[in-house]
Amino acid sequence: MDFEKFSSDKYFGLIAKSALHFIESHDYQKIVTILFECYKRGGTVFTMGCGGSASTATHFAADLAKTTMVGGKFGFKAISLVDNIPLVSAWINDKGWSSIFAGQLEQWITKDDVLVGFSVHGGTKQGDEAGPWSQNLVAAMKLAKERKAKIIGFCGFDGGAMKELADAAIIVPIHSEPYGTPAIEAMHIVLHHPIIYDLKERIKGLNGRKKTA
Fold first, then answer.
1. Over the stretch 23-82, which tens digit does the pLDDT of each residue have?
2. For the chain, counts of helices (H) and of strands (E)
3. Up-side HSE of residue 169: CA atoms within 13 Å toward CB?
4. What would be the CATH architecture of the domain defined by 25-204?
5. Domains of the chain, residue spans
6. Is 191 strand, coil or helix?
7. Where are the alpha helices (DSSP H) in 84-210?
8. How far apart are CA 195 and CA 98, in angstroms?
């Protein structure tokens, strides 16, 4: 793949254009609603991603658990599937990388839960030495669908498998390198923060899910 020369001006322009694209996004609102419904029924949000998207998965789970907290009410139950380094490294060593997320979910995920995946390409037939990209995310999404859990996807390019499997997917409208990977990963962070604060506002107005002493 031949990349054009990188330009920071074009990069910032793509970020600004992409942000404007989501101002009245139906998919954005649907994601907030899916997460809010999960909160109300006491379900768990599981997050996953590889590479830079792994750090976004961790960040999102942390913000769900902490930043959405409202005094006197329960917080979100949120778990990032990338965070337990001893488990992740042992799993890869013994069982391989392809089942790292589905394997962890097998014991936990139910119809009350939500699986959130972050991926630049969304799981595609393209790839490199390791084979097609992000098939471990695809395997986890297939398991979640079998268990009737809701699936949320954050991706870019054409959305890949995530677009087909997710109940709601945000697809950052960038399709070229060298901007695709950095701009899509950056936009996922741009998008995740308002989702967190929109959820917090909804929780403030909710009568249920209060703590009892």
1. 989 999 999 999 999 999 999 999 999 999 999 999 999 999 999 999 888 889 999 999
2. 8, 7
3. 25
4. 3-Layer(aba) Sandwich (3.40)
5. 25-204
6. helix
7. 85-95, 100-105, 135-146, 160-165, 180-204
8. 29
